[in-house]
């Protein structure tokens, strides 16, 4: 008897781990994926990163969660089926899916390769797809996604360490490019040395930028300088250090998602410097205007990137051997990992080994 193919074994069925309520506790969950449409790519999920937003969403801390909720938007795997009109991918390709799986394709943002700012952007999980079905994320054994929202993973990137680039990586790469903080010789500060911050250092250094890590924790100095290759380190609570660095930076990428003062960060900027927020604190930050006026300084924000730029980021990472620093875990460890993530007890990104440890 011929061995059944993956598609025959998994006819639009899926198995994953889901949160059922605001406790955020994840447990095994069987559900259905849509059938592979003519422009769809189906792939077997091999690895999925754990983003801090997965924790927020599992607990409905942003008030938008739809239960049962299968998290995960740093997803990589191997193509098992393609629709009849798919042009960019074939069975066996290594691919990834990030934070979005759909958009309107007709607004100004979509027409300018900025699907991430489309008013009708469809998130990878906990939202409604074009056909009204619920989207489920990468804590599952397979995905079906429109080929437009799938990226090719170059062969030289290890899949496990590449997975976090699909959210954390593009979140810091995009503002470095858009705000012109990618020029050799520039000086950029990176606030926070977590999942986003550590890859921000790597991307900026690969662009030829001088990088200063800014952290509340003096314990991270050796890690920042010796392991990640930052040029200097500032303890944000040390007023003397911060005072000495005033007016020295072309830009600051702020990755912190907790409440924190931004006046000291604005003070670090040169005239016409840019403070870019990519973290998402739950409460509004206080914005002092006078320091902005006195230096024509800019405070901006940035959220992931469009699909063209996301592929560009992955290719840049492959060319420069940039990967995330990860701790690979089994699927049944996910609730413990979430508890550790809440305590920032990870260096720097958990990645679930879906392919080897997901048991239906």
Automatic annotation (TrEMBL):
Name any cofactors this protein relies on. Answer: Zn(2+)
Q: Which Pfam families match?
A: ADH_N, ADH_zinc_N
What Gene Ontology terms describe what this protein does at the molecular function level? oxidoreductase activity, acting on the CH-OH group of donors, NAD or NADP as acceptor; zinc ion binding
State the SMART domains in the record. PKS_ER
Q: What is the lineage of its organism?
A: Eukaryota, Viridiplantae, Streptophyta, Embryophyta, Tracheophyta
Please list the residue ranges annotated as the Enoyl reductase (ER) domain: 24-352
Q: Which family does it belong to?
A: Belongs to the zinc-containing alcohol dehydrogenase family.
Q: Output the PROSITE patterns linked to this UniProt entry.
A: ADH_ZINC
Return the CDD domains for the record.
CAD1 (cd05283)
| Cross-referenced PANTHER family | ALDEHYDE REDUCTASE (PTHR42683)
Put simply, this protein is called Enoyl reductase (ER) domain-containing protein
For this protein, the record's InterPro entries field holds:
ADH-like_C, ADH-like_N, ADH_Zn_CS, CAD-like, ER, GroES-like_sf, NAD(P)-bd_dom_sf
Q: Which key words are in the record? A: Metal-binding, Oxidoreductase, Zinc
What biological processes does GO assign it?
lignin biosynthetic process
What species was this sequence derived from? Populus deltoides (Eastern poplar)
